[in-house]
Amino acid sequence: MEILGLSLALLALFVSFGFMVGVLFGFFGMGGSFLVTPTLLILGYPASVAIGSGLAFYFGTSVIAVMKHYDVGQVDYRLGAVLFVVLSIGIELGSRLVFALEALGIANLITGVAYVLLLGGIGALFLRRAYNLETEDGDDEDISDEDIPAVAQRIQSYTVPPMIDLSSGGRASVWTITGTGGGVGLVSGLIGVGGGFMRMPAIYYVIGTPLTAAVGTSLFAGLFSGAFGTFTYGRTGSVDLVVVSLLLVGSALGARIGSAATTMVEEDDVIVYFGLMMVFASVGIALSELANWLGTDALDTLSVLLLVGSSFFVASMILYKVVQAVSTDGSTARATPDGDD
Amino acid sequence: MIDLTTLSGPTGATLVVGVIFVQALALYAGYAVLERVLPPLVETATST
Q1: Are B5 and A235 inside 8 Å of each other by CB?
Q2: Which of A69, A194, B14, B41 would suit a FRET pair with A215, their CA atoms being 20 to 30 Å apart?
Q3: Separation CA A201–CA A214 (nearest Å)
């Protein structure tokens, strides 16, 4: 039986996968489209459709994120507007590169290799952070949200005109903003990620704004560049609206639960699982590329299991810890009936 | 009826962006309503 051109099993897979991705996104603030695009690639969608649908999914989750944080803290609107323009140019160039690679028949291979490196790199960073948390004795130096990192201050000291004033008081060269935003946009358009995990650190460490302004400005620029990415791929019919809609139905609910879970579960308790998930996802994509090369179905199944299974496992761990925290709270409340509500 | 799965061109792309935008708003609002309505209902059901 098929609904909207998809089997019931695929329909359930997309909604539940969207839910799990939503839990991860709500909890860690990342992990949205960069899990969706490779999964669609492994499921056999053409690279342009996988990337276009990944960007469309990112746009949908950005709308929900902005609604949730409608007062997005400090937003540097001037910087956000310039970033939106250069991000859009980068996305457009990235998408043209994808269509050119598709014409050469190597788009899936190039995006697959890019994902192996990207997810493996992020996974390694998270595992290193988990290791440091284990070995350090908690005497981290406090960094104020208003501080600008030393590296950004050094970059700001090179005054290559034209310069623009930042709302935080500093000044940044338009060339720095163009290079940073254009580079992030190119990667977004090439592999179909929203790029929040690159955009926010780039604004903070390279352009040089306080952390709170970097988060707000990244969200602001990301919403519009997500819409532009969706439009770019939508022009060639490369957005599978049914798949995106099913993923969004699951992720909108999952993101609410994931974001509520941050008040009950310590990120440090599950960060090692998130790092491992990224490494498993990276291995899964590598196996999928190997399966295409060798022409074996068994490796393809294993790669889906690794990619989807690892994200299900980490999301389940978060949900399990939420249930544990709720039941502990419940038993504590019953043990102390005089406690105030 | 418009087949939303095969939209392309600038008009189709604008429609796709619009549909995803409206869907995201509806999902956000829908789940927010559920979040307000469900817990009191569950509490009532479990206390009776």
Answers
A1: no
A2: B14
A3: 8
